[in-house]
Amino acid sequence: MKSKIIFTTLLIEKSPQAIPLGAACVASAVKNNSLTKDLCDVELLPFNIEDFENLWEQKKTDYSDDCNHCSFDNFCANLITKKILENKPEIVGFSVFVWNSKILQMVSQNLKKNNVFTLAGGPEITAHPQIFTAFDKTISGEGEAKVPAAIYERITGQKVEINVIDYEKLSSCYLDGTLDVCDYEGALWELARGCPFKCSYCYESKGEKTVRQFPMARIEKELDLFAQKKVPQVFVLDPTYNADKTRAIQLLKMIKEKTPDTFYYFEARAEFIDRELASYFSKIPCALQIGLQTADENVARLVNRPFNLKNFTKKINILNETGIVFGLDVIYGLPGDTFAGFKNSVNYAVSLYPNNLEIFCLSVLSGTTIFDDAEKLHLSFDKEPPYHVLHTDKFSAQDLQNARKIAEGCNIFYNEGRSVPWFNTICRTLKIKPAVFFEKFYNFLNLSEKTYEHNCKNHYNHKYIEELQKRFVKEQFAQKNILRLYNVAQDLISYHGAISRKTDTRKSETIFLHYPPEFLDSEYAFDLEFFVKNVKPKSVQFKS
After folding, report:
1. Whole-structure pTM over 0.85, yes or no?
2. Burial of 58 (0-12, 13-18, 19+ CB in 10 A)
3. Among 16, 160, 333, 378, which residue's CB has the most CB atoms within a 10 Å radius?
Protein backbone atom coordinates (compact mmCIF):
# COMPACT_ATOMS: atom_id res chain seq x y z
CA MET A 1 0.00 0.00 0.00
CA LYS A 2 1.36 3.41 -0.96
CA SER A 3 2.17 6.03 1.66
CA LYS A 4 -0.07 9.12 1.57
CA ILE A 5 1.98 12.30 1.31
CA ILE A 6 0.62 15.83 1.34
CA PHE A 7 2.52 18.91 0.24
CA THR A 8 1.12 22.17 1.51
CA THR A 9 1.80 25.85 2.03
CA LEU A 10 -0.06 28.91 3.26
CA LEU A 11 -0.37 31.68 0.69
CA ILE A 12 -1.31 35.28 1.37
CA GLU A 13 -4.25 35.14 -1.04
CA LYS A 14 -5.63 33.16 -3.94
CA SER A 15 -4.57 34.97 -7.09
CA PRO A 16 -2.38 34.53 -10.17
CA GLN A 17 0.48 35.98 -8.15
CA ALA A 18 -0.08 33.65 -5.19
CA ILE A 19 0.24 30.12 -6.50
CA PRO A 20 1.76 27.21 -4.51
CA LEU A 21 4.52 26.78 -7.09
CA GLY A 22 7.30 25.69 -4.72
CA ALA A 23 5.18 23.01 -3.05
CA ALA A 24 3.88 21.91 -6.45
CA CYS A 25 7.39 21.57 -7.92
CA VAL A 26 8.47 19.30 -5.06
CA ALA A 27 5.22 17.31 -5.20
CA SER A 28 5.76 16.82 -8.94
CA ALA A 29 9.34 15.67 -8.32
CA VAL A 30 8.20 13.09 -5.74
CA LYS A 31 5.52 11.80 -8.11
CA ASN A 32 8.04 11.34 -10.91
CA ASN A 33 11.24 10.38 -9.07
CA SER A 34 12.27 6.74 -9.60
CA LEU A 35 12.83 6.34 -5.84
CA THR A 36 9.38 7.42 -4.72
CA LYS A 37 6.88 7.23 -7.59
CA ASP A 38 5.85 3.65 -6.74
CA LEU A 39 5.88 4.22 -2.98
CA CYS A 40 3.78 7.36 -2.65
CA ASP A 41 0.31 8.71 -3.22
CA VAL A 42 1.01 12.45 -3.52
CA GLU A 43 -1.47 15.31 -3.04
CA LEU A 44 -1.05 19.06 -3.21
CA LEU A 45 -3.21 20.80 -0.59
CA PRO A 46 -2.54 24.57 -0.38
CA PHE A 47 -4.28 27.14 1.83
CA ASN A 48 -4.44 30.94 1.79
CA ILE A 49 -4.69 33.54 4.56
CA GLU A 50 -7.39 35.50 2.74
CA ASP A 51 -9.86 32.62 3.12
CA PHE A 52 -9.12 32.34 6.83
CA GLU A 53 -9.52 36.09 7.32
CA ASN A 54 -12.98 35.87 5.78
CA LEU A 55 -13.87 32.93 8.04
CA TRP A 56 -12.48 34.76 11.06
CA GLU A 57 -14.79 37.70 10.36
CA GLN A 58 -17.82 35.87 9.01
CA LYS A 59 -18.02 32.89 11.32
CA LYS A 60 -17.03 34.21 14.73
CA THR A 61 -20.37 33.04 16.04
CA ASP A 62 -19.89 29.51 14.69
CA TYR A 63 -16.36 29.42 16.08
CA SER A 64 -17.07 31.55 19.13
CA ASP A 65 -15.10 29.36 21.56
CA ASP A 66 -12.11 29.19 19.22
CA CYS A 67 -12.22 32.91 18.51
CA ASN A 68 -12.49 33.84 22.18
CA HIS A 69 -9.69 31.59 23.36
CA CYS A 70 -7.14 31.64 20.58
CA SER A 71 -5.36 34.04 18.28
CA PHE A 72 -5.92 34.30 14.55
CA ASP A 73 -2.72 32.28 14.04
CA ASN A 74 -4.08 29.47 16.22
CA PHE A 75 -7.39 29.67 14.41
CA CYS A 76 -5.62 29.19 11.05
CA ALA A 77 -3.36 26.42 12.36
CA ASN A 78 -6.26 24.46 13.83
CA LEU A 79 -8.30 24.60 10.62
CA ILE A 80 -5.30 23.63 8.47
CA THR A 81 -4.50 20.75 10.81
CA LYS A 82 -8.09 19.49 10.69
CA LYS A 83 -8.20 19.60 6.89
CA ILE A 84 -4.87 17.81 6.53
CA LEU A 85 -5.78 15.08 9.01
CA GLU A 86 -9.02 14.41 7.11
CA ASN A 87 -6.79 13.14 4.29
CA LYS A 88 -4.93 10.75 6.64
CA PRO A 89 -1.35 11.42 5.48
CA GLU A 90 1.75 9.67 6.81
CA ILE A 91 4.05 12.51 5.74
CA VAL A 92 3.39 16.25 5.24
CA GLY A 93 5.80 18.58 3.47
CA PHE A 94 5.64 22.33 4.08
CA SER A 95 6.82 25.19 1.87
CA VAL A 96 7.83 27.88 4.37
CA PHE A 97 8.06 31.62 3.72
CA VAL A 98 8.34 34.77 5.84
CA TRP A 99 4.58 35.27 6.03
CA ASN A 100 3.61 31.70 6.95
CA SER A 101 6.43 30.29 9.08
CA LYS A 102 4.77 30.87 12.46
CA ILE A 103 1.45 29.27 11.51
CA LEU A 104 3.02 26.33 9.68
CA GLN A 105 5.23 25.54 12.65
CA MET A 106 2.07 25.37 14.78
CA VAL A 107 0.45 23.05 12.22
CA SER A 108 3.51 20.80 12.26
CA GLN A 109 3.42 20.53 16.04
CA ASN A 110 -0.27 19.59 15.86
CA LEU A 111 0.41 16.93 13.21
CA LYS A 112 3.31 15.41 15.12
CA LYS A 113 0.95 14.80 18.05
CA ASN A 114 -1.07 12.71 15.59
CA ASN A 115 1.99 10.68 14.52
CA VAL A 116 2.42 12.45 11.19
CA PHE A 117 6.01 12.93 10.02
CA THR A 118 6.70 16.51 8.89
CA LEU A 119 9.40 18.00 6.73
CA ALA A 120 9.88 21.57 5.56
CA GLY A 121 11.77 23.56 2.97
CA GLY A 122 11.63 26.97 1.31
CA PRO A 123 13.44 30.29 1.73
CA GLU A 124 12.91 30.57 5.50
CA ILE A 125 14.20 27.04 6.10
CA THR A 126 17.15 27.47 3.77
CA ALA A 127 18.32 30.55 5.66
CA HIS A 128 18.50 28.93 9.13
CA PRO A 129 17.29 25.30 9.12
CA GLN A 130 18.54 24.61 12.65
CA ILE A 131 16.07 26.99 14.33
CA PHE A 132 12.96 25.32 12.90
CA THR A 133 12.66 22.52 15.44
CA ALA A 134 8.88 22.27 15.02
CA PHE A 135 9.47 20.08 11.95
CA ASP A 136 10.84 16.54 12.06
CA LYS A 137 13.18 17.31 9.17
CA THR A 138 14.26 20.47 7.36
CA ILE A 139 15.67 20.66 3.85
CA SER A 140 17.72 23.60 2.55
CA GLY A 141 17.97 24.75 -1.03
CA GLU A 142 16.25 23.22 -4.03
CA GLY A 143 14.04 20.35 -2.94
CA GLU A 144 13.36 18.35 -6.10
CA ALA A 145 16.19 15.90 -5.40
CA LYS A 146 16.53 16.17 -1.59
CA VAL A 147 12.85 15.67 -0.72
CA PRO A 148 12.37 12.41 -2.66
CA ALA A 149 15.54 11.09 -1.02
CA ALA A 150 14.27 12.09 2.45
CA ILE A 151 10.88 10.47 1.82
CA TYR A 152 12.49 7.30 0.48
CA GLU A 153 14.62 7.10 3.62
CA ARG A 154 11.59 7.68 5.86
CA ILE A 155 9.56 4.94 4.18
CA THR A 156 12.28 2.32 3.59
CA GLY A 157 14.86 3.19 6.22
CA GLN A 158 17.54 3.26 3.51
CA LYS A 159 19.72 6.27 2.80
CA VAL A 160 20.50 7.23 -0.78
CA GLU A 161 23.00 9.55 -2.37
CA ILE A 162 21.47 12.88 -3.38
CA ASN A 163 22.34 13.85 -6.94
CA VAL A 164 22.57 17.32 -8.43
CA ILE A 165 19.29 18.36 -10.06
CA ASP A 166 19.27 17.74 -13.79
CA TYR A 167 17.11 20.53 -15.18
CA GLU A 168 16.79 18.65 -18.47
CA LYS A 169 14.99 15.79 -16.71
CA LEU A 170 13.11 17.76 -14.05
CA SER A 171 9.34 17.28 -14.28
CA SER A 172 7.02 20.25 -14.78
CA CYS A 173 4.19 20.66 -12.24
CA TYR A 174 2.06 22.21 -14.99
CA LEU A 175 2.67 19.55 -17.62
CA ASP A 176 2.01 16.62 -15.26
CA GLY A 177 -1.17 18.18 -13.86
CA THR A 178 0.05 18.82 -10.30
CA LEU A 179 -0.98 22.44 -10.81
CA ASP A 180 -3.93 23.43 -12.97
CA VAL A 181 -3.56 26.98 -14.29
CA CYS A 182 -7.35 27.21 -14.61
CA ASP A 183 -7.63 27.13 -10.80
CA TYR A 184 -5.78 30.43 -10.44
CA GLU A 185 -6.72 32.40 -13.59
CA GLY A 186 -3.05 32.72 -14.37
CA ALA A 187 0.36 31.17 -13.89
CA LEU A 188 3.70 31.69 -12.22
CA TRP A 189 6.15 30.64 -14.91
CA GLU A 190 9.63 29.66 -13.75
CA LEU A 191 12.22 30.15 -16.48
CA ALA A 192 15.39 30.22 -14.40
CA ARG A 193 16.76 30.06 -10.87
CA GLY A 194 19.59 32.03 -9.38
CA CYS A 195 20.83 35.52 -10.12
CA PRO A 196 24.08 36.93 -11.52
CA PHE A 197 23.88 39.77 -8.98
CA LYS A 198 24.40 39.69 -5.23
CA CYS A 199 22.31 42.50 -3.72
CA SER A 200 23.03 42.13 -0.02
CA TYR A 201 19.37 42.21 1.12
CA CYS A 202 18.39 39.30 -1.16
CA TYR A 203 18.48 35.55 -0.43
CA GLU A 204 20.75 35.21 -3.47
CA SER A 205 23.41 37.40 -1.86
CA LYS A 206 25.34 34.44 -0.40
CA GLY A 207 24.69 31.85 -3.08
CA GLU A 208 26.70 30.98 -6.12
CA LYS A 209 26.71 33.74 -8.71
CA THR A 210 25.10 31.51 -11.30
CA VAL A 211 21.84 31.26 -13.20
CA ARG A 212 20.29 27.83 -13.88
CA GLN A 213 17.98 27.97 -16.87
CA PHE A 214 15.17 25.56 -17.60
CA PRO A 215 15.48 23.85 -21.00
CA MET A 216 13.78 25.50 -23.95
CA ALA A 217 11.94 22.28 -24.85
CA ARG A 218 10.14 22.31 -21.49
CA ILE A 219 9.43 26.03 -21.72
CA GLU A 220 7.87 25.60 -25.16
CA LYS A 221 5.61 22.76 -23.95
CA GLU A 222 4.44 24.87 -20.99
CA LEU A 223 3.76 27.73 -23.38
CA ASP A 224 1.69 25.40 -25.56
CA LEU A 225 -0.28 24.44 -22.44
CA PHE A 226 -0.89 28.10 -21.59
CA ALA A 227 -2.16 28.62 -25.13
CA GLN A 228 -4.42 25.57 -24.93
CA LYS A 229 -5.86 26.67 -21.55
CA LYS A 230 -6.15 30.30 -22.73
CA VAL A 231 -4.29 31.55 -19.65
CA PRO A 232 -5.07 35.28 -19.31
CA GLN A 233 -1.91 36.33 -17.45
CA VAL A 234 1.51 34.95 -16.64
CA PHE A 235 3.99 36.18 -14.03
CA VAL A 236 7.47 35.26 -15.20
CA LEU A 237 9.83 34.07 -12.47
CA ASP A 238 13.28 35.09 -13.56
CA PRO A 239 14.76 37.96 -11.51
CA THR A 240 16.93 39.10 -14.42
CA TYR A 241 14.90 38.04 -17.44
CA ASN A 242 16.75 40.36 -19.81
CA ALA A 243 20.29 39.55 -18.63
CA ASP A 244 20.65 37.08 -21.52
CA LYS A 245 19.43 39.21 -24.42
CA THR A 246 19.53 36.46 -27.05
CA ARG A 247 17.44 34.09 -24.93
CA ALA A 248 15.09 36.88 -23.88
CA ILE A 249 14.34 37.79 -27.50
CA GLN A 250 13.92 34.13 -28.47
CA LEU A 251 11.31 33.69 -25.74
CA LEU A 252 9.52 36.92 -26.63
CA LYS A 253 9.19 35.73 -30.24
CA MET A 254 7.82 32.41 -29.01
CA ILE A 255 5.36 34.16 -26.69
CA LYS A 256 4.12 36.38 -29.52
CA GLU A 257 3.58 33.38 -31.76
CA LYS A 258 1.91 31.03 -29.27
CA THR A 259 0.06 33.25 -26.76
CA PRO A 260 -0.49 36.66 -28.39
CA ASP A 261 -3.45 37.49 -26.13
CA THR A 262 -1.87 36.56 -22.79
CA PHE A 263 -0.55 39.39 -20.59
CA TYR A 264 2.96 38.83 -19.20
CA TYR A 265 4.70 40.37 -16.21
CA PHE A 266 8.50 40.39 -16.24
CA GLU A 267 11.17 41.37 -13.73
CA ALA A 268 13.93 43.21 -15.55
CA ARG A 269 17.17 45.07 -14.95
CA ALA A 270 17.24 48.56 -16.39
CA GLU A 271 20.91 48.41 -17.41
CA PHE A 272 20.20 45.59 -19.89
CA ILE A 273 17.44 47.44 -21.73
CA ASP A 274 18.18 48.64 -25.24
CA ARG A 275 16.00 49.68 -28.18
CA GLU A 276 16.09 46.29 -29.87
CA LEU A 277 14.95 44.46 -26.75
CA ALA A 278 12.34 47.13 -26.03
CA SER A 279 10.90 46.69 -29.52
CA TYR A 280 10.32 42.98 -28.83
CA PHE A 281 8.68 43.69 -25.48
CA SER A 282 6.40 46.16 -27.24
CA LYS A 283 5.06 43.43 -29.56
CA ILE A 284 3.33 41.48 -26.78
CA PRO A 285 0.91 42.52 -24.01
CA CYS A 286 3.26 42.92 -21.04
CA ALA A 287 4.56 44.99 -18.16
CA LEU A 288 8.05 45.16 -16.68
CA GLN A 289 8.81 45.55 -12.97
CA ILE A 290 12.20 47.13 -12.36
CA GLY A 291 14.07 47.43 -9.08
CA LEU A 292 15.27 50.99 -8.54
CA GLN A 293 15.44 50.56 -4.72
CA THR A 294 17.31 53.85 -4.27
CA ALA A 295 18.37 56.77 -6.44
CA ASP A 296 21.44 57.36 -4.28
CA GLU A 297 24.49 55.74 -5.86
CA ASN A 298 26.35 55.63 -2.53
CA VAL A 299 23.47 53.85 -0.76
CA ALA A 300 23.20 51.42 -3.66
CA ARG A 301 26.90 50.66 -3.31
CA LEU A 302 26.44 49.80 0.37
CA VAL A 303 23.97 47.04 -0.54
CA ASN A 304 26.15 45.76 -3.40
CA ARG A 305 23.78 46.96 -6.11
CA PRO A 306 25.62 48.78 -8.90
CA PHE A 307 23.66 51.85 -9.98
CA ASN A 308 24.25 54.75 -12.34
CA LEU A 309 21.55 57.42 -12.21
CA LYS A 310 22.25 58.84 -15.66
CA ASN A 311 22.26 55.43 -17.32
CA PHE A 312 19.12 54.31 -15.44
CA THR A 313 17.25 57.40 -16.65
CA LYS A 314 18.38 56.79 -20.23
CA LYS A 315 17.19 53.17 -20.17
CA ILE A 316 13.79 54.01 -18.64
CA ASN A 317 13.32 56.72 -21.26
CA ILE A 318 13.61 53.99 -23.90
CA LEU A 319 10.66 52.21 -22.30
CA ASN A 320 8.60 55.40 -22.25
CA GLU A 321 9.46 56.18 -25.87
CA THR A 322 8.53 52.64 -26.90
CA GLY A 323 5.26 52.75 -24.97
CA ILE A 324 6.04 49.83 -22.66
CA VAL A 325 4.19 49.62 -19.36
CA PHE A 326 6.60 49.40 -16.42
CA GLY A 327 6.70 49.78 -12.66
CA LEU A 328 9.48 50.63 -10.22
CA ASP A 329 10.41 49.43 -6.72
CA VAL A 330 11.86 51.60 -3.93
CA ILE A 331 13.03 50.40 -0.49
CA TYR A 332 13.15 52.57 2.63
CA GLY A 333 15.41 51.93 5.62
CA LEU A 334 18.45 50.88 3.57
CA PRO A 335 21.83 51.22 5.32
CA GLY A 336 23.36 54.63 4.72
CA ASP A 337 20.07 56.12 3.52
CA THR A 338 18.25 59.00 5.18
CA PHE A 339 14.60 60.05 5.16
CA ALA A 340 15.52 62.93 2.87
CA GLY A 341 17.38 60.54 0.58
CA PHE A 342 14.41 58.18 0.50
CA LYS A 343 12.10 61.05 -0.47
CA ASN A 344 14.50 62.00 -3.25
CA SER A 345 14.30 58.41 -4.52
CA VAL A 346 10.50 58.56 -4.55
CA ASN A 347 10.55 61.91 -6.35
CA TYR A 348 13.00 60.61 -8.92
CA ALA A 349 10.98 57.43 -9.47
CA VAL A 350 7.73 59.33 -10.07
CA SER A 351 9.47 61.66 -12.52
CA LEU A 352 10.03 58.62 -14.77
CA TYR A 353 6.25 58.03 -15.11
CA PRO A 354 6.09 54.42 -13.86
CA ASN A 355 2.72 52.72 -14.16
CA ASN A 356 3.07 51.71 -10.51
CA LEU A 357 5.51 52.52 -7.73
CA GLU A 358 5.94 49.82 -5.09
CA ILE A 359 7.52 51.12 -1.87
CA PHE A 360 8.76 48.59 0.70
CA CYS A 361 10.33 48.66 4.13
CA LEU A 362 13.68 46.86 4.23
CA SER A 363 13.43 43.32 5.60
CA VAL A 364 16.67 42.03 7.13
CA LEU A 365 16.34 38.37 6.13
CA SER A 366 18.41 35.69 7.78
CA GLY A 367 20.64 33.99 5.28
CA THR A 368 21.53 37.25 3.53
CA THR A 369 24.73 39.30 3.60
CA ILE A 370 22.92 42.28 5.12
CA PHE A 371 21.80 40.06 8.02
CA ASP A 372 25.39 39.03 8.72
CA ASP A 373 26.59 42.64 8.48
CA ALA A 374 23.67 44.22 10.35
CA GLU A 375 25.74 45.40 13.33
CA LYS A 376 28.45 46.85 11.12
CA LEU A 377 25.78 48.61 9.02
CA HIS A 378 24.05 49.98 12.17
CA LEU A 379 20.80 48.16 11.43
CA SER A 380 18.32 47.38 14.19
CA PHE A 381 15.53 45.08 13.01
CA ASP A 382 12.61 43.02 14.24
CA LYS A 383 13.57 39.40 14.94
CA GLU A 384 10.06 38.22 14.02
CA PRO A 385 8.65 38.02 10.47
CA PRO A 386 8.66 40.05 8.30
CA TYR A 387 11.98 41.21 9.92
CA HIS A 388 11.48 44.89 9.13
CA VAL A 389 14.22 47.32 10.02
CA LEU A 390 13.37 49.27 13.19
CA HIS A 391 15.95 52.04 12.81
CA THR A 392 19.45 52.72 11.52
CA ASP A 393 22.07 55.25 12.49
CA LYS A 394 20.65 57.62 9.84
CA PHE A 395 17.01 56.54 9.59
CA SER A 396 15.16 56.91 12.90
CA ALA A 397 12.06 55.00 13.98
CA GLN A 398 10.03 58.18 13.35
CA ASP A 399 11.57 58.46 9.87
CA LEU A 400 10.46 54.91 9.15
CA GLN A 401 6.95 55.72 10.32
CA ASN A 402 6.85 58.75 8.02
CA ALA A 403 8.22 56.67 5.15
CA ARG A 404 5.43 54.16 5.71
CA LYS A 405 2.91 57.01 5.39
CA ILE A 406 4.43 57.98 2.06
CA ALA A 407 4.31 54.36 0.91
CA GLU A 408 0.63 53.96 1.84
CA GLY A 409 -0.30 57.33 0.37
CA CYS A 410 1.48 56.39 -2.86
CA ASN A 411 -0.18 52.99 -3.05
CA ILE A 412 -3.69 54.39 -2.72
CA PHE A 413 -3.37 57.66 -4.66
CA TYR A 414 -0.89 56.64 -7.36
CA ASN A 415 -1.18 52.85 -7.78
CA GLU A 416 -4.77 52.00 -6.85
CA GLY A 417 -5.85 55.47 -7.98
CA ARG A 418 -4.30 54.91 -11.43
CA SER A 419 -3.08 58.49 -11.53
CA VAL A 420 0.04 58.11 -13.66
CA PRO A 421 -1.30 60.06 -16.73
CA TRP A 422 -1.91 63.24 -14.73
CA PHE A 423 -0.08 62.97 -11.42
CA ASN A 424 3.09 64.88 -12.36
CA THR A 425 0.96 67.64 -13.89
CA ILE A 426 -0.88 68.11 -10.60
CA CYS A 427 2.39 68.15 -8.65
CA ARG A 428 3.91 70.74 -10.98
CA THR A 429 0.81 72.91 -10.69
CA LEU A 430 0.92 72.75 -6.89
CA LYS A 431 4.72 73.14 -6.88
CA ILE A 432 4.98 70.17 -4.54
CA LYS A 433 7.24 67.11 -4.62
CA PRO A 434 5.59 63.68 -4.98
CA ALA A 435 6.85 62.35 -1.63
CA VAL A 436 5.41 65.35 0.22
CA PHE A 437 2.19 65.00 -1.78
CA PHE A 438 1.81 61.34 -0.77
CA GLU A 439 2.41 62.10 2.89
CA LYS A 440 -0.13 64.94 2.81
CA PHE A 441 -2.65 62.60 1.18
CA TYR A 442 -2.08 59.96 3.85
CA ASN A 443 -2.70 62.56 6.54
CA PHE A 444 -5.81 63.77 4.69
CA LEU A 445 -7.19 60.23 4.69
CA ASN A 446 -6.59 59.72 8.38
CA LEU A 447 -8.03 63.09 9.33
CA SER A 448 -11.07 63.17 7.06
CA GLU A 449 -11.90 59.59 6.11
CA LYS A 450 -12.78 57.21 8.92
CA THR A 451 -13.68 54.47 6.46
CA TYR A 452 -10.88 54.89 3.94
CA GLU A 453 -8.95 51.83 5.06
CA HIS A 454 -11.95 49.54 4.69
CA ASN A 455 -13.06 51.01 1.36
CA CYS A 456 -9.70 51.54 -0.30
CA LYS A 457 -7.27 49.00 1.06
CA ASN A 458 -9.67 46.07 1.31
CA HIS A 459 -12.02 46.58 -1.62
CA TYR A 460 -9.82 48.68 -3.93
CA ASN A 461 -12.89 50.55 -5.15
CA HIS A 462 -11.43 52.81 -7.81
CA LYS A 463 -14.44 55.12 -8.08
CA TYR A 464 -14.28 55.71 -4.33
CA ILE A 465 -10.55 56.45 -4.51
CA GLU A 466 -11.22 58.81 -7.42
CA GLU A 467 -13.62 60.85 -5.27
CA LEU A 468 -10.96 61.06 -2.57
CA GLN A 469 -8.43 62.21 -5.17
CA LYS A 470 -10.73 65.00 -6.33
CA ARG A 471 -11.49 66.17 -2.81
CA PHE A 472 -7.84 66.18 -1.82
CA VAL A 473 -6.69 67.97 -4.98
CA LYS A 474 -9.44 70.57 -4.56
CA GLU A 475 -8.31 71.15 -0.97
CA GLN A 476 -4.69 71.58 -2.09
CA PHE A 477 -5.68 73.95 -4.92
CA ALA A 478 -7.71 76.03 -2.44
CA GLN A 479 -4.70 76.30 -0.12
CA LYS A 480 -2.60 77.54 -3.05
CA ASN A 481 -5.35 79.95 -4.22
CA ILE A 482 -5.56 78.31 -7.65
CA LEU A 483 -9.13 77.00 -7.62
CA ARG A 484 -9.54 78.58 -11.07
CA LEU A 485 -7.56 75.58 -12.35
CA TYR A 486 -9.55 72.95 -10.49
CA ASN A 487 -12.15 72.20 -13.20
CA VAL A 488 -9.52 71.01 -15.64
CA ALA A 489 -7.74 69.04 -12.90
CA GLN A 490 -11.06 67.40 -12.00
CA ASP A 491 -11.67 66.60 -15.67
CA LEU A 492 -8.26 64.95 -16.00
CA ILE A 493 -8.99 62.74 -13.00
CA SER A 494 -12.51 61.86 -14.24
CA TYR A 495 -11.53 61.32 -17.88
CA HIS A 496 -8.55 59.04 -17.26
CA GLY A 497 -10.38 57.27 -14.44
CA ALA A 498 -13.29 56.36 -16.71
CA ILE A 499 -10.94 55.08 -19.40
CA SER A 500 -8.99 52.95 -16.90
CA ARG A 501 -12.20 51.41 -15.54
CA LYS A 502 -13.38 50.65 -19.08
CA THR A 503 -10.06 48.90 -19.74
CA ASP A 504 -10.38 46.99 -16.47
CA THR A 505 -14.05 45.98 -16.61
CA ARG A 506 -14.93 46.50 -20.31
CA LYS A 507 -18.01 48.40 -19.13
CA SER A 508 -18.67 51.85 -20.53
CA GLU A 509 -19.82 54.76 -18.40
CA THR A 510 -20.90 58.29 -19.12
CA ILE A 511 -19.25 61.20 -17.31
CA PHE A 512 -19.68 64.98 -17.47
CA LEU A 513 -16.68 67.16 -18.32
CA HIS A 514 -16.01 70.88 -18.32
CA TYR A 515 -13.70 70.63 -21.34
CA PRO A 516 -13.68 68.59 -24.58
CA PRO A 517 -11.90 65.22 -24.08
CA GLU A 518 -9.64 65.68 -27.10
CA PHE A 519 -7.91 68.56 -25.29
CA LEU A 520 -7.64 66.61 -22.03
CA ASP A 521 -5.79 63.93 -23.98
CA SER A 522 -3.39 66.38 -25.62
CA GLU A 523 -0.14 68.08 -24.70
CA TYR A 524 -2.19 71.08 -23.54
CA ALA A 525 -3.02 69.12 -20.39
CA PHE A 526 0.60 69.02 -19.22
CA ASP A 527 0.36 72.68 -18.14
CA LEU A 528 -2.90 73.62 -16.42
CA GLU A 529 -2.23 77.38 -16.53
CA PHE A 530 -1.63 77.20 -20.28
CA PHE A 531 -4.68 74.94 -20.70
CA VAL A 532 -7.09 77.32 -18.95
CA LYS A 533 -5.77 80.30 -20.93
CA ASN A 534 -6.01 78.59 -24.31
CA VAL A 535 -8.90 76.09 -24.16
CA LYS A 536 -12.46 77.35 -24.02
CA PRO A 537 -14.69 75.55 -21.48
CA LYS A 538 -17.47 73.48 -22.99
CA SER A 539 -19.69 71.15 -20.97
CA VAL A 540 -19.77 67.74 -22.63
CA GLN A 541 -20.86 64.18 -21.95
CA PHE A 542 -18.15 61.60 -22.50
CA LYS A 543 -18.82 57.88 -22.86
CA SER A 544 -15.76 55.77 -22.14
Report:
1. yes
2. exposed
3. 333
